[in-house]
Amino acid sequence: WGIVGIDRDTPRTQEMQAFLRGSGFVYPITALAGDVEARVECRAVVDLVNMGAEPEAAVAVLADPQTRIVSMTVTEKGYYCDIKSGALRMNAELQHDLSRDGAARPRSMHGLVAQALKQRMEAGLPGVTLMSLDNVPGNGRILRKALMQFLELADIPGLIEWAEVNVSFPCSMVDRITPNTANAADDVATEPYRQWVLEDDFVNGRPLFEVLPPSAGLILTRDVLPYEHMKTRLLNGAHSALAYLSYLAHHRNVDHALADPRVQLFVRAYLRETATTVHAVPGISLELYQATLLARFSNPRISDMIVRLCEDGSMKASSFWKPVIEDHLAADRPISMICLAVAGWIRYSLGVDERGEAIPVKDPALAHVLEPLARVAFEHGDVRPFLEAAFGPEVARAESFVEEVARWHSMIKDNGVVSLLEGVTQALAQVSNAVESYAEGEVQGIRVIM
Length: 450
Hints:
The strands form four sheets. A three-stranded mixed beta sheet has the order 3-2-9, with no helix packed on it. A three-stranded parallel beta sheet has the order 5-6-7. By secondary structure, the chain is mainly alpha-helical. The chain is globular. The model is unreliable at 434-450 (pLDDT under 50). Helix 10 packs across helix 19 and helix 17 (399-415) crosses helix 18. It has helices spanning 11-22, 55-63, 92-98, 109-122, 139-154, 159-166, 225-248, 254-258, 261-274, 286-297, 306-310, 313-331, 336-349, 367-380, 384-391, 393-396, 399-415, 417-423, 425-439, and strands spanning 3-7, 27-33, 36-42, 45-50, 69-72, 128-132, 167-168, 172-175, 188-190, 195-199, 218-221.
């Protein structure tokens, strides 16, 4: 088994391609935490194809009979669909790939996969597993829905029927914090912690995962959903929650933000509140998991950038926050902490901080819509239009939610985030007490697994 990477035509891809070819496709990975520094050389990658420059070569890789699994890490925005329903959202790339001339030189993930499946079908080759690794709830199911809609539009005779039998879409959950490198030649720095949960649904063979030691962090299961809920709602949701408020509090690195007692207390309280919406996970203590997250976020040797966590806010809010909000509202539970997080996002989306300095809002999906609505909230105190655009009309009709977001947003506007968090320290401490007791004890037993 080996990995052939495929990426878009960007300066970064070109730089990475040159570096990997020069290094013989070997690069170092170093796990860092405290006094731990475990370094290994990765030799799993055997090639990297620039899809933008060589689309036919990219199709050939996926259509190659030796290719049995196609894993995808394209982020939420790469699916070109509603990430809750899987409904395809047409754009210029998809239109190009659906055209007669464009189909053979695809630009989108869906177009690439469709052409490869077509070639496999016509050549009488075995099927393939399409394995999404993105932070999309029910990622395999969403990928399947979006791709099948694309195949319907492509109208390739027999392909949908062939794919129904010969293609599988396992769900997955991948968890390891690995900040971007500045340059292709930089060592990849990551944390010791890792967890990879895979639905065991492969149509054309898979690596013998069973021989991996427990330290590899791999779990094969028939049901990924409990692990996915835990990770997306607690880790990913908390990342977004801390990101906007931390940026407004003038922090720029996650570990620096968590060193601020006020921010850490908020994150503890957010986790505690959100954990009430997370189903039990076999063999995992949710309290210990929350404390582990705090330790991971606070790791000064993996200094992730807060501005990166702020990117694509509308997609992340829909995936990580909306289901939590809906569960809280259905159960009529207090939702103060997630309302504070949402209020921070609204204030961040204004695009300028309390000092008058520009905020680098990067949200291709909805930034052009949300910025004027954030201005309405700032100038008129009305957060409902923003909430409706971000979460839909049903959530925006929940008066308790709207009023609580508006209350926090008003306090952020009047006092600033630093003063606000300082003023509500006692209330935050009451919510976070259960998490704090674990953070001081059992979390010290986190295993180094590299």
